[in-house]
Amino acid sequence: MRDAFIEALYDRMAGDERIFFLAADLGSPALDRLRADFPERFINVGIAEQNLINVATGLALEGGIVYAYAIAPFISMRAYEQIRVNLSISSQVRPVNVNLIGVGGGVSYQVSGPTHHCLEDLAIMRLLPNMAVFSPSDWRLAAAFVDYTVSNCTPKYLRFDGKPIPAIYDTVTPETVAAGFCELVAGTEACIVSTGFMTQRALNAARSHGAVGVVDLFLLKPANTEELRQTLLKYRHIVTVEEGFVGNGGLDSLVAQILNEDRHSVTLDHIGFNDRYVFELGTRDQLHARNGMDEAAITAAITRRLGHGKP
Asked: What does the alpha-carbon distance between residue 183 and residue 179 come to, in Å, rounded to a whole number?
């Protein structure tokens, strides 16, 4: 995701001198070309995420289009006060186009433990007024979001996976990005609503049930609430799946809020991490299985609903 996004951004930087890229001492081969070809617009602020936001804000207030890049838990939580004051509050007074790129959402940094897992970011970033929240499920969607970041002059949080994952989308149009979600599979009885990496899990789980649809919700704020609501009301049972804490303001809370007035006609189940950090060591598949988030758990939740209907 990161590499595809940066490659697309490179083309925009070549033709737009307003674009700056800032990094908190986090390197990657994808950044080498940016650093070499745009040295005056590539800034490494060091391991200092708070200062990363301060510098990014200053450049944006002078008319820059700024991208600030760091590990997801550190840019979203270590610098949260700066994000709140400099971006969320300030952007309500004057335009501020700062795009926060958090790499390593969920448990994609699996063996680094709970300090490097990022399970809170979707909830706390959704909480901030004036902040857009983007959680792509594949690299094509990530690359296609570059145009949105340039043309929409608001603060944004981009949650990228830390590992290479397969493509889901064949093509991504500007209309797809603007919609904020995509019904990847049309079902009849039940629907899995997922975001980020978990859309990969949702698609695999849905294959075992012909009546199950899959909705990939990648723009969690601003959400296309009315169109999403109409899409979800086609189903009797909905399961939300996210690589974050459930019941605390993330994807599940967004879907529940959208369907609040229709809860009498739709059942909702939520799959994600419960109210505890993950200290176990293992692969991502193992961590998901131990926490009831693997494909077997998603399939079981759907089977219970389709087998027994509403409780």
From this structure: 11
